[in-house]
Automatic annotation (TrEMBL):
One BP term from GO: L-valine biosynthetic process
Alphabetically ordered keywords of this record: Amino-acid biosynthesis, Aminotransferase, Branched-chain amino acid biosynthesis, Pyridoxal phosphate, Transferase
Cofactor(s) demanded: pyridoxal 5'-phosphate
Metabolic or biological pathway, per its Swiss-Prot or TrEMBL entry: Amino-acid biosynthesis; L-leucine biosynthesis; L-leucine from 3-methyl-2-oxobutanoate: step 4/4; Amino-acid biosynthesis; L-isoleucine biosynthesis; L-isoleucine from 2-oxobutanoate: step 4/4; Amino-acid biosynthesis; L-valine biosynthesis; L-valine from pyruvate: step 4/4
Name of protein: branched-chain-amino-acid transaminase
Keyword set includes Disulfide bond: no
Superkingdom assignment: Bacteria
Sites of N6-(pyridoxal phosphate)lysine modification: 203
Family: Belongs to the class-IV pyridoxal-phosphate-dependent aminotransferase family.
EC number: 2.6.1.42
Organism ancestry: Bacteria, Bacillati, Actinomycetota, Actinomycetes, Streptosporangiales
Enzyme class: transferase
Catalytic activity: L-leucine + 2-oxoglutarate = 4-methyl-2-oxopentanoate + L-glutamate; L-valine + 2-oxoglutarate = 3-methyl-2-oxobutanoate + L-glutamate; L-isoleucine + 2-oxoglutarate = (S)-3-methyl-2-oxopentanoate + L-glutamate
GO MF terms, alphabetically ordered: L-isoleucine-2-oxoglutarate transaminase activity; L-leucine-2-oxoglutarate transaminase activity; L-valine-2-oxoglutarate transaminase activity
Length: 367
Protein backbone atom coordinates (compact mmCIF):
# COMPACT_ATOMS: atom_id res chain seq x y z
CA UNK A 1 0.00 0.00 0.00
CA UNK A 2 1.49 3.34 -0.97
CA UNK A 3 0.82 5.83 1.77
CA UNK A 4 2.22 9.05 3.05
CA UNK A 5 2.11 7.60 6.60
CA UNK A 6 2.55 4.19 8.16
CA UNK A 7 -0.44 3.13 10.22
CA UNK A 8 0.06 1.56 13.63
CA UNK A 9 -2.37 -1.33 13.78
CA UNK A 10 -4.05 -2.53 16.98
CA UNK A 11 -6.76 -5.11 16.40
CA UNK A 12 -9.63 -5.46 18.83
CA UNK A 13 -9.48 -8.33 21.28
CA UNK A 14 -13.27 -8.54 21.20
CA UNK A 15 -14.47 -8.47 17.59
CA UNK A 16 -18.16 -9.15 17.02
CA UNK A 17 -18.77 -12.87 16.60
CA UNK A 18 -19.98 -14.15 13.24
CA UNK A 19 -23.43 -14.62 14.81
CA UNK A 20 -23.55 -11.08 16.20
CA UNK A 21 -22.50 -9.69 12.86
CA UNK A 22 -25.05 -11.78 10.97
CA UNK A 23 -27.80 -10.54 13.28
CA UNK A 24 -26.84 -6.91 12.61
CA UNK A 25 -26.44 -7.44 8.86
CA UNK A 26 -29.90 -9.03 8.68
CA UNK A 27 -31.46 -5.64 9.50
CA UNK A 28 -28.78 -2.96 9.66
CA UNK A 29 -30.91 0.19 9.24
CA UNK A 30 -28.82 3.27 8.47
CA UNK A 31 -25.95 4.50 10.66
CA UNK A 32 -26.97 2.52 13.74
CA UNK A 33 -24.23 -0.10 13.96
CA UNK A 34 -20.47 0.22 13.60
CA UNK A 35 -17.69 -2.18 12.69
CA UNK A 36 -14.91 -3.43 14.97
CA UNK A 37 -12.29 -0.82 14.13
CA UNK A 38 -11.75 2.84 13.35
CA UNK A 39 -9.01 5.08 11.98
CA UNK A 40 -7.46 8.02 13.82
CA UNK A 41 -4.85 10.42 12.41
CA UNK A 42 -3.68 13.49 14.29
CA UNK A 43 -2.64 16.85 12.93
CA UNK A 44 -0.71 19.65 14.58
CA UNK A 45 0.62 22.80 13.00
CA UNK A 46 4.19 21.90 13.93
CA UNK A 47 4.12 18.17 12.97
CA UNK A 48 1.55 18.08 10.18
CA UNK A 49 -0.34 14.77 9.82
CA UNK A 50 1.07 12.13 12.17
CA UNK A 51 0.22 9.28 14.51
CA UNK A 52 -1.93 7.31 12.03
CA UNK A 53 -3.65 4.36 13.66
CA UNK A 54 -6.15 1.64 13.04
CA UNK A 55 -7.57 0.75 16.43
CA UNK A 56 -10.59 -0.88 18.08
CA UNK A 57 -13.81 1.12 17.60
CA UNK A 58 -14.64 2.96 20.80
CA UNK A 59 -15.02 6.24 22.71
CA UNK A 60 -12.33 8.90 22.38
CA UNK A 61 -11.16 10.97 25.36
CA UNK A 62 -11.82 14.67 24.70
CA UNK A 63 -10.98 17.82 26.64
CA UNK A 64 -14.24 19.72 27.33
CA UNK A 65 -12.54 22.90 26.10
CA UNK A 66 -11.81 21.35 22.66
CA UNK A 67 -12.73 23.97 20.09
CA UNK A 68 -15.06 21.69 18.16
CA UNK A 69 -17.53 21.66 21.08
CA UNK A 70 -17.77 25.43 21.18
CA UNK A 71 -17.24 26.68 17.66
CA UNK A 72 -18.23 23.64 15.58
CA UNK A 73 -15.00 23.52 13.62
CA UNK A 74 -15.50 20.16 11.98
CA UNK A 75 -16.28 18.51 8.66
CA UNK A 76 -17.31 15.11 7.36
CA UNK A 77 -17.50 12.99 4.24
CA UNK A 78 -19.66 10.03 3.24
CA UNK A 79 -18.98 7.19 0.80
CA UNK A 80 -19.75 3.50 0.61
CA UNK A 81 -18.08 0.14 0.08
CA UNK A 82 -20.02 -2.31 -2.09
CA UNK A 83 -19.91 -6.11 -2.24
CA UNK A 84 -19.36 -7.39 -5.79
CA UNK A 85 -20.84 -10.56 -7.30
CA UNK A 86 -17.45 -12.36 -6.93
CA UNK A 87 -17.28 -11.45 -3.22
CA UNK A 88 -14.70 -8.68 -3.64
CA UNK A 89 -15.30 -5.18 -2.25
CA UNK A 90 -15.01 -1.78 -3.97
CA UNK A 91 -15.46 1.87 -3.08
CA UNK A 92 -16.90 4.42 -5.48
CA UNK A 93 -14.90 7.49 -6.58
CA UNK A 94 -13.07 7.88 -3.24
CA UNK A 95 -10.70 10.52 -4.62
CA UNK A 96 -13.71 12.79 -5.24
CA UNK A 97 -14.52 12.61 -1.54
CA UNK A 98 -10.88 13.32 -0.69
CA UNK A 99 -10.85 16.39 -2.94
CA UNK A 100 -14.17 17.63 -1.56
CA UNK A 101 -12.93 17.18 2.00
CA UNK A 102 -10.00 19.41 1.21
CA UNK A 103 -12.29 22.07 -0.28
CA UNK A 104 -14.37 21.95 2.90
CA UNK A 105 -11.19 22.09 4.99
CA UNK A 106 -10.12 25.29 3.23
CA UNK A 107 -13.49 26.93 3.94
CA UNK A 108 -13.45 25.85 7.59
CA UNK A 109 -9.82 26.93 8.19
CA UNK A 110 -8.81 23.33 8.75
CA UNK A 111 -5.80 21.43 7.39
CA UNK A 112 -5.93 19.71 4.03
CA UNK A 113 -4.93 16.05 3.86
CA UNK A 114 -3.02 14.37 1.01
CA UNK A 115 -5.74 12.67 -1.07
CA UNK A 116 -3.79 9.40 -1.07
CA UNK A 117 -3.70 9.39 2.74
CA UNK A 118 -7.48 9.89 2.88
CA UNK A 119 -8.04 6.98 0.48
CA UNK A 120 -5.46 4.76 2.23
CA UNK A 121 -7.18 5.39 5.58
CA UNK A 122 -10.63 4.52 4.21
CA UNK A 123 -9.33 1.43 2.42
CA UNK A 124 -7.38 0.16 5.42
CA UNK A 125 -10.55 0.25 7.51
CA UNK A 126 -12.58 -1.51 4.81
CA UNK A 127 -9.88 -4.14 4.27
CA UNK A 128 -9.70 -4.84 8.01
CA UNK A 129 -13.47 -4.96 8.54
CA UNK A 130 -14.47 -6.37 5.13
CA UNK A 131 -16.59 -9.08 6.75
CA UNK A 132 -18.97 -6.24 7.66
CA UNK A 133 -19.68 -5.33 4.03
CA UNK A 134 -23.24 -6.60 3.52
CA UNK A 135 -24.17 -8.68 0.53
CA UNK A 136 -27.93 -8.10 0.61
CA UNK A 137 -29.28 -6.20 -2.40
CA UNK A 138 -28.97 -2.44 -2.00
CA UNK A 139 -26.99 -2.75 1.24
CA UNK A 140 -23.46 -1.41 1.68
CA UNK A 141 -20.85 -0.38 4.22
CA UNK A 142 -21.31 3.37 4.75
CA UNK A 143 -17.97 5.04 5.46
CA UNK A 144 -17.82 8.21 7.48
CA UNK A 145 -14.51 10.11 7.43
CA UNK A 146 -14.60 13.21 9.66
CA UNK A 147 -12.27 15.76 11.19
CA UNK A 148 -12.55 18.18 14.09
CA UNK A 149 -10.56 20.75 16.07
CA UNK A 150 -9.08 19.36 19.27
CA UNK A 151 -7.19 22.52 20.23
CA UNK A 152 -7.96 23.32 23.87
CA UNK A 153 -9.17 26.86 24.49
CA UNK A 154 -12.10 29.18 24.09
CA UNK A 155 -10.42 32.05 22.26
CA UNK A 156 -11.40 32.59 18.67
CA UNK A 157 -8.72 34.98 17.56
CA UNK A 158 -6.17 32.42 16.56
CA UNK A 159 -7.32 29.45 14.49
CA UNK A 160 -7.15 25.96 15.98
CA UNK A 161 -3.87 24.20 15.29
CA UNK A 162 -4.66 20.64 16.40
CA UNK A 163 -7.12 18.32 14.70
CA UNK A 164 -8.20 14.72 14.74
CA UNK A 165 -9.25 12.92 11.54
CA UNK A 166 -11.20 9.70 11.94
CA UNK A 167 -12.98 7.12 9.80
CA UNK A 168 -15.76 4.90 11.12
CA UNK A 169 -17.83 2.41 9.14
CA UNK A 170 -21.48 1.44 9.44
CA UNK A 171 -23.13 -1.50 7.69
CA UNK A 172 -26.24 -0.01 6.17
CA UNK A 173 -29.46 -1.00 4.53
CA UNK A 174 -31.69 1.34 2.58
CA UNK A 175 -31.52 4.96 3.71
CA UNK A 176 -35.29 5.20 3.34
CA UNK A 177 -36.77 1.90 4.55
CA UNK A 178 -39.68 2.51 2.18
CA UNK A 179 -37.24 2.10 -0.71
CA UNK A 180 -37.84 4.11 -3.86
CA UNK A 181 -41.43 5.08 -3.04
CA UNK A 182 -41.54 8.82 -3.91
CA UNK A 183 -41.12 11.30 -1.08
CA UNK A 184 -43.24 14.37 -0.43
CA UNK A 185 -41.33 17.60 0.07
CA UNK A 186 -41.95 20.82 1.93
CA UNK A 187 -40.92 24.24 0.52
CA UNK A 188 -39.24 25.92 3.46
CA UNK A 189 -39.86 29.65 3.40
CA UNK A 190 -39.03 30.30 7.06
CA UNK A 191 -35.55 28.82 7.04
CA UNK A 192 -32.66 28.90 4.62
CA UNK A 193 -29.84 26.41 4.53
CA UNK A 194 -27.11 28.47 2.97
CA UNK A 195 -26.35 32.02 1.88
CA UNK A 196 -23.84 33.37 -0.65
CA UNK A 197 -20.41 33.53 0.98
CA UNK A 198 -21.50 31.12 3.70
CA UNK A 199 -20.72 27.46 4.19
CA UNK A 200 -23.36 25.85 1.94
CA UNK A 201 -20.95 24.03 -0.33
CA UNK A 202 -18.89 22.71 2.60
CA UNK A 203 -19.71 19.28 3.97
CA UNK A 204 -19.72 20.67 7.47
CA UNK A 205 -21.91 19.49 10.35
CA UNK A 206 -23.20 22.99 11.08
CA UNK A 207 -25.08 23.01 7.77
CA UNK A 208 -26.91 19.89 8.89
CA UNK A 209 -27.58 21.17 12.44
CA UNK A 210 -29.03 24.32 10.90
CA UNK A 211 -31.31 22.20 8.71
CA UNK A 212 -33.01 20.23 11.49
CA UNK A 213 -35.62 22.92 12.35
CA UNK A 214 -36.64 23.09 8.67
CA UNK A 215 -36.80 19.30 8.49
CA UNK A 216 -38.98 19.26 11.64
CA UNK A 217 -41.25 21.84 9.97
CA UNK A 218 -41.52 19.57 6.92
CA UNK A 219 -42.48 16.59 9.06
CA UNK A 220 -45.02 18.71 10.97
CA UNK A 221 -46.55 19.64 7.59
CA UNK A 222 -46.89 15.93 6.76
CA UNK A 223 -43.91 15.85 4.36
CA UNK A 224 -40.82 13.63 4.27
CA UNK A 225 -38.14 16.13 3.34
CA UNK A 226 -37.49 19.83 3.16
CA UNK A 227 -36.68 21.72 -0.06
CA UNK A 228 -34.15 24.50 0.42
CA UNK A 229 -34.62 27.70 -1.52
CA UNK A 230 -32.06 30.44 -2.09
CA UNK A 231 -31.47 32.83 0.81
CA UNK A 232 -31.96 36.06 -1.16
CA UNK A 233 -35.21 35.72 -3.12
CA UNK A 234 -36.59 32.55 -1.52
CA UNK A 235 -37.64 31.22 -4.91
CA UNK A 236 -34.68 29.47 -6.56
CA UNK A 237 -34.57 25.78 -5.78
CA UNK A 238 -31.27 24.55 -4.31
CA UNK A 239 -31.43 21.16 -2.57
CA UNK A 240 -33.78 18.69 -0.94
CA UNK A 241 -32.93 17.48 2.56
CA UNK A 242 -29.30 16.43 2.29
CA UNK A 243 -29.55 15.65 -1.43
CA UNK A 244 -29.07 17.41 -4.76
CA UNK A 245 -32.16 17.77 -6.97
CA UNK A 246 -32.67 16.68 -10.59
CA UNK A 247 -35.54 17.82 -12.83
CA UNK A 248 -36.50 15.74 -15.86
CA UNK A 249 -38.25 17.47 -18.77
CA UNK A 250 -40.08 15.45 -21.41
CA UNK A 251 -39.73 11.73 -21.87
CA UNK A 252 -38.29 9.03 -24.12
CA UNK A 253 -35.71 10.15 -26.65
CA UNK A 254 -36.54 13.82 -25.98
CA UNK A 255 -35.98 13.70 -22.19
CA UNK A 256 -33.54 16.20 -20.73
CA UNK A 257 -32.38 16.78 -17.21
CA UNK A 258 -31.60 19.96 -15.27
CA UNK A 259 -29.95 20.35 -11.88
CA UNK A 260 -29.33 23.57 -9.96
CA UNK A 261 -25.83 24.86 -10.75
CA UNK A 262 -23.14 24.89 -8.08
CA UNK A 263 -23.30 28.52 -7.00
CA UNK A 264 -21.39 28.11 -3.74
CA UNK A 265 -24.50 27.43 -1.67
CA UNK A 266 -25.00 23.82 -2.82
CA UNK A 267 -23.11 20.68 -2.02
CA UNK A 268 -21.12 19.27 -4.95
CA UNK A 269 -22.50 15.73 -4.61
CA UNK A 270 -20.58 12.76 -5.99
CA UNK A 271 -23.91 11.19 -7.05
CA UNK A 272 -24.92 14.50 -8.66
CA UNK A 273 -21.71 14.51 -10.68
CA UNK A 274 -22.20 10.84 -11.61
CA UNK A 275 -25.76 11.58 -12.84
CA UNK A 276 -24.47 14.44 -15.00
CA UNK A 277 -22.01 12.01 -16.59
CA UNK A 278 -24.33 9.00 -16.92
CA UNK A 279 -27.36 10.84 -18.32
CA UNK A 280 -25.80 12.00 -21.64
CA UNK A 281 -24.34 8.52 -22.16
CA UNK A 282 -27.91 7.17 -21.89
CA UNK A 283 -29.08 9.75 -24.42
CA UNK A 284 -30.49 12.19 -21.86
CA UNK A 285 -29.17 15.72 -22.29
CA UNK A 286 -28.08 17.08 -18.92
CA UNK A 287 -27.44 20.66 -17.89
CA UNK A 288 -26.81 22.75 -14.83
CA UNK A 289 -28.94 25.86 -14.43
CA UNK A 290 -31.56 27.60 -12.36
CA UNK A 291 -35.15 26.70 -11.59
CA UNK A 292 -37.65 28.67 -9.51
CA UNK A 293 -40.56 27.23 -7.54
CA UNK A 294 -42.94 28.96 -10.00
CA UNK A 295 -41.25 27.21 -12.94
CA UNK A 296 -41.34 23.91 -11.05
CA UNK A 297 -45.05 24.23 -10.35
CA UNK A 298 -46.04 25.46 -13.83
CA UNK A 299 -43.76 22.86 -15.49
CA UNK A 300 -45.58 20.09 -13.64
CA UNK A 301 -48.99 21.62 -14.44
CA UNK A 302 -48.19 21.76 -18.18
CA UNK A 303 -46.63 18.28 -18.15
CA UNK A 304 -43.29 19.67 -19.31
CA UNK A 305 -41.59 18.49 -16.10
CA UNK A 306 -42.15 14.76 -15.91
CA UNK A 307 -39.94 13.59 -13.05
CA UNK A 308 -37.99 15.04 -10.13
CA UNK A 309 -35.59 13.19 -7.89
CA UNK A 310 -33.13 13.82 -5.11
CA UNK A 311 -29.74 12.13 -5.27
CA UNK A 312 -26.97 11.55 -2.75
CA UNK A 313 -24.61 8.86 -1.54
CA UNK A 314 -26.84 7.66 1.28
CA UNK A 315 -30.19 7.42 -0.55
CA UNK A 316 -28.75 7.09 -4.11
CA UNK A 317 -31.92 8.27 -5.91
CA UNK A 318 -35.09 9.31 -4.18
CA UNK A 319 -38.02 10.23 -6.46
CA UNK A 320 -40.08 13.25 -5.42
CA UNK A 321 -43.82 12.71 -5.83
CA UNK A 322 -45.50 15.66 -4.19
CA UNK A 323 -44.61 19.27 -3.28
CA UNK A 324 -46.24 21.36 -0.58
CA UNK A 325 -45.70 24.91 0.65
CA UNK A 326 -47.54 27.56 2.69
CA UNK A 327 -49.70 28.63 -0.24
CA UNK A 328 -49.31 25.93 -2.90
CA UNK A 329 -49.25 22.21 -3.46
CA UNK A 330 -48.80 20.00 -6.52
CA UNK A 331 -47.98 16.47 -7.70
CA UNK A 332 -45.18 15.55 -10.09
CA UNK A 333 -46.27 13.34 -12.98
CA UNK A 334 -48.50 10.63 -11.57
CA UNK A 335 -46.69 10.73 -8.20
CA UNK A 336 -44.90 7.44 -8.98
CA UNK A 337 -41.17 6.83 -9.70
CA UNK A 338 -40.42 7.96 -13.26
CA UNK A 339 -38.79 5.96 -16.04
CA UNK A 340 -35.69 8.18 -16.39
CA UNK A 341 -35.07 8.27 -12.62
CA UNK A 342 -35.23 4.49 -12.49
CA UNK A 343 -32.97 4.02 -15.52
CA UNK A 344 -30.33 6.29 -14.03
CA UNK A 345 -30.65 4.55 -10.68
CA UNK A 346 -30.26 1.09 -12.24
CA UNK A 347 -27.24 2.21 -14.21
CA UNK A 348 -25.48 3.74 -11.19
CA UNK A 349 -26.28 0.83 -8.89
CA UNK A 350 -25.14 -1.60 -11.58
CA UNK A 351 -21.72 0.09 -11.73
CA UNK A 352 -21.43 0.27 -7.93
CA UNK A 353 -22.44 -3.35 -7.33
CA UNK A 354 -20.44 -4.70 -10.26
CA UNK A 355 -23.32 -5.99 -12.35
CA UNK A 356 -22.63 -3.49 -15.15
CA UNK A 357 -19.36 -2.45 -16.76
CA UNK A 358 -17.65 0.66 -15.38
CA UNK A 359 -16.35 2.54 -18.43
CA UNK A 360 -15.55 5.56 -16.22
CA UNK A 361 -13.06 3.90 -13.85
CA UNK A 362 -15.21 4.91 -10.88
CA UNK A 363 -14.98 1.75 -8.83
CA UNK A 364 -11.91 1.18 -6.73
CA UNK A 365 -11.23 -2.41 -5.80
CA UNK A 366 -10.11 -2.94 -2.20
CA UNK A 367 -10.31 -6.64 -1.36
C1 LIG B 1 -25.47 11.69 1.60
O1 LIG B 1 -26.46 11.36 0.97
O2 LIG B 1 -24.36 11.43 1.19
C2 LIG B 1 -25.55 12.42 2.86
O3 LIG B 1 -24.79 13.30 3.05
C3 LIG B 1 -26.55 12.01 3.85
C4 LIG B 1 -25.97 11.93 5.23
C5 LIG B 1 -25.97 13.27 5.88
C6 LIG B 1 -26.71 10.91 6.05
Amino acid sequence: MSSTLDFEITLTERPATADERARILADPGFGRHFTDHMITIRYSADRGWHDARLEPYGPIPMDPASQVFHYAQELFEGLKAYRQPDGSVVTFRPFMNAARMNRTARRMAMPEMPEQLFVDAVELLVRTDHAWVPDAEGHSLYLRPFMFATTRGLGVNSPADEFLFMVIASPSGLYYPRGIKPVSVWLSQDYTRAAPGGTGEAKFGGNYAASFAGQAEAVAAGCDQVVWLDAVEHRWVEEVGSMNLMFVYGSGARARMLTPALTGTLLAGVTRDSMLTLAPDLGIAAEEGKISIEEWQSGCASGEITEVFGCGTAAIISPVGHVKGNDREWTIGDGEPGEISMRLREELIGIQYGTRPDPYGWVHKIV
